[in-house]
């Protein structure tokens, strides 16, 4: 019998999440039995903390549920020949240090995964956030060489890949982020222009200065005031990929913003929301491309690693506050 540590949503978040909204519990896992439903025992090695957990907790969870989430986990006992002991998988096991599985929802790390690459990248650049950048740019923004792409939350898991893929695609890239350290990182990984949205005196001016001709594509991770301003600087026939709205996830009262219809009409813009799982049938294609670019050094990565399963809530809250450069990961 294995005792598993799990994090539970004790109280639905009101406004910004607090550590007191979570409870660390211990649960007993049943032993695997021959012919039983549960075929696999796993231990989490790296866990992901992601912005979606904030809105999805309200939509999909009730108080007392184990927090939703994904991890890179190692198989430590197996009664399923498709998964050998010691193999690594990406799992949707929630915030659990150990868990059991029937194997249906597990994805083995690609067999071509190089030893030199951290397995945690399967939660970031070569995982869900990387795929979000890939499909958002190719299928929603439909970027073309020579175009100008704007991305916010640009130094994060999704944004940093968006900028680099847009450069690979022959575009000019403008990014913004919430600290000077992040801005320096964006320049280092090839962004043409980058600014700190927290310290510029006018967002409008900063956007205009970075691209006086405006933007063909806007990959929006933030929503709110930033998006309301940026929409006015789109070029005619521009495309806006509405990926996330992190500036609004913690609002108890919905923000009132300016309205987008007039620039949408006169610039004949296309604005489309999307969820990365729409392209689940092309997951392998996306992961293969991302892994190749990482191995060629064309896509750089950075991880913000928090040590210790007991620090999951702090890592999650820190990511929402912008403490992460690159993908926020917890190492058990
Ligand atoms: N549609 C989809 O399928 C998916 C959507 N997403 C969305 O993409 C976005 C980025 O996710 P991800 O890359 O994982 O997270 P990040 O790694 O970018 O981390 C979140 C970042 O958001 C920024 N941020 C926080 N609050 C604000 C605010 N009020 N205004 C502006 N920026 C803020 C912070 O950076 P800074 O210091 O720059 O403020 C923080 O580091 C999120 O909105 C997420 O919900 C993610 C995955 C899939
Ligand atoms: C359990 C993995 C689900 C991933 C879907 C993420 C969609 C994100 C939307 C906004 O952040």
From TrEMBL:
Q: Which InterPro entries match?
A: ADH-like_C, ADH_N_2, ER, GroES-like_sf, MDR_fam, NAD(P)-bd_dom_sf, PTGR1
**What's an example of a GO molecular-function annotation for this chain?**
15-oxoprostaglandin 13-reductase [NAD(P)+] activity
Q: What is its EC number?
A: 1.3.1.48, 1.3.1.74
Q: Which GO terms describe its biological process?
A: prostaglandin metabolic process
Report the enzyme's class at the first EC level: oxidoreductase
Provide the catalytic activity annotation: octanal + NADP(+) = (2E)-octenal + NADPH + H(+); 6-trans-leukotriene B4 + NADP(+) = 12-oxo-(5S)-hydroxy-(6E,8E,10E,14Z)-eicosatetraenoate + NADPH + H(+); 20-hydroxy-leukotriene B4 + NADP(+) = 12-oxo-20-hydroxy-leukotriene B4 + NADPH + H(+); (5S,12S)-dihydroxy-(6E,10E,12E,14Z)-eicosatetraenoate + NADP(+) = 12-oxo-(5S)-hydroxy-(6E,8E,10E,14Z)-eicosatetraenoate + NADPH + H(+)
- Stretches assigned to the Enoyl reductase (ER) domain: 40-330
Q: Which domain of life is it from?
A: Eukaryota
Which terms are listed as keywords in the entry? Answer: Acetylation, Cytoplasm, Fatty acid metabolism, Hydroxylation, Lipid metabolism, NADP, Oxidoreductase, Phosphoprotein, Prostaglandin metabolism
Any keyword NADP? yes
**Quick one: where is this thing mainly located?**
cytoplasm
**May I have one GO cellular component term?**
cytoplasm
Compartments it resides in: Cytoplasm
**Which Pfam families would you find in this protein's record?**
ADH_N_2, ADH_zinc_N
Family that this chain belongs to: Belongs to the NADP-dependent oxidoreductase L4BD family.
Q: How does it assemble?
A: Monomer or homodimer.
What's the protein called, per UniProt?
Prostaglandin reductase 1
């Amino acid at each position: 019998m294995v005792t598993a540590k799990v994090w539970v949503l004790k109280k639905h978040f009101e406004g910004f999440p607090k550590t007191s909204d979570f409870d660390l519990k211990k649960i007993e896992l049943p032993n695997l039995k021959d012919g039983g439903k549960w075929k696999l025992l796993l231990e989490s090695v790296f866990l992901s903390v992601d912005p979606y957990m904030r809105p999805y907790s309200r939509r999909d969870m009730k108080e007392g549920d184990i927090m939703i989430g994904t991890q890179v986990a190692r198989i430590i006992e197996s009664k399923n020949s498709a998964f050998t002991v010691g193999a690594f998988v990406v799992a949707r096991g929630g915030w659990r240090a150990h868990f059991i599985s029937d194997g249906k929802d597990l994805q083995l790390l690609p067999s071509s995964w190089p030893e030199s690459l951290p397995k945690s990248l399967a939660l970031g650049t070569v995982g869900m956030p990387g795929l979000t950048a890939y499909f958002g740019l190719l299928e929603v923004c439909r970027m073309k060489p020579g175009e100008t792409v704007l991305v916010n939350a640009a130094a994060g898991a999704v944004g940093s890949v968006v900028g680099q893929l847009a450069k690979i695609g022959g575009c000019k890239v403008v990014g913004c982020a919430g600290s000077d350290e992040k801005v320096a990182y964006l320049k280092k990984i090839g962004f043409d222009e980058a600014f700190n949205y927290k310290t510029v005196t006018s967002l409008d001016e900063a956007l205009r200065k970075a691209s006086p001709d405006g933007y063909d594509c806007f990959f929006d991770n933030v929503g709110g005031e930033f998006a309301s301003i940026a929409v006015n600087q789109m070029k005619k026939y521009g495309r806006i990929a509405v990926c996330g709205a992190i500036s609004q996830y913690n609002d108890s009262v919905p923000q009132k913003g300016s309205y987008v219809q007039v620039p949408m009409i006169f610039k004949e813009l296309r604005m489309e929301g999307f969820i990365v799982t729409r392209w689940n049938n092309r997951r392998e294609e996306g992961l293969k491309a991302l892994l190749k670019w990482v191995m060629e050094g064309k896509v750089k990565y950075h991880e913000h690693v928090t040590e210790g399963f007991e620090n999951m809530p702090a890592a999650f809250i820190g990511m929402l506050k912008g403490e992460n450069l690159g993908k926020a990961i917890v190492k058990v």
